[in-house]
Design goal:
Layout: E1 7-10, H1 14-24, E2 29-35, E3 47-54, E4 57-63, E5 77-82, H2 85-96, E6 100-106, E7 114-118, E8 124-129
Parallel strand pairs: 1-4, 5-8
Antiparallel strand pairs: 2-3, 3-4, 6-7, 7-8
Length: about 130
C-alpha cells in the first residue's frame, strides 16, 4: 500500500471548495486538476479529478458526473488542531459561514476550546485549540 488519501465528491463545486480551503489554511495548495473535456461524461471544464493539500495532508476530489441523492455527512470530518485562539476563531467563523453549527466553540472538558461546523459545501470540520 502506497498511502491513504481522503477523497471528497462534490456536485459541481469542487474547484470552488479547494480554492476556499487553501485560502483559509496556510501551507496549502492545489497540486493538480484534470478537467472534463467537451466529449467527456461530465460537464466541460468541471473537475474530473484533483489533488490538493491542507497543511501538508493530501486530499483528492471530483465533481461527480453522476447526480447522487446523498452528500457529505458529519460522521466523517476534517479535524484541525489550531495553535492560537485567533486561528480557531477565524476558521470557525469562516468555515461555518453559509453552513451550519454542530457544536459551538466552547470548553467541553476534553479541550479548552472546541467547535464542530459544516461548511457551505457540506463538509464537516472539527476545530480544536491545542
Amino acid at each position: 500500500m502506497a498511502k491513504v488519501t481522503p477523497f471528497l465528491m462534490f456536485q459541481g463545486n469542487a474547484e470552488e471548495a479547494m480554492d476556499y480551503y487553501i485560502s483559509l489554511i496556510e501551507d496549502s495548495e492545489i497540486i493538480r486538476i484534470t478537467r472534463y473535456g467537451a466529449n467527456g461524461p461530465g460537464e466541460e471544464g468541471s473537475v474530473m479529478h484533483a489533488a490538493f493539500t491542507l497543511k501538508g495532508q493530501e486530499f483528492m476530489c471530483i465533481d461527480s458526473n453522476i447526480k447522487h441523492e446523498f452528500t457529505f455527512t458529519p460522521s466523517f470530518s476534517i479535524y484541525i488542531t489550531c495553535d492560537t485562539e485567533e486561528e480557531i476563531n477565524r476558521l470557525y467563523e469562516n468555515l461555518s459561514s453559509g453552513g451550519g453549527l454542530l457544536m459551538s466553540l466552547d470548553n467541553y472538558g476534553f479541550s479548552k476550546k472546541f467547535g464542530w461546523v459544516v461548511d457551505k459545501f457540506g463538509v464537516s470540520w472539527q476545530l480544536n485549540l491545542q
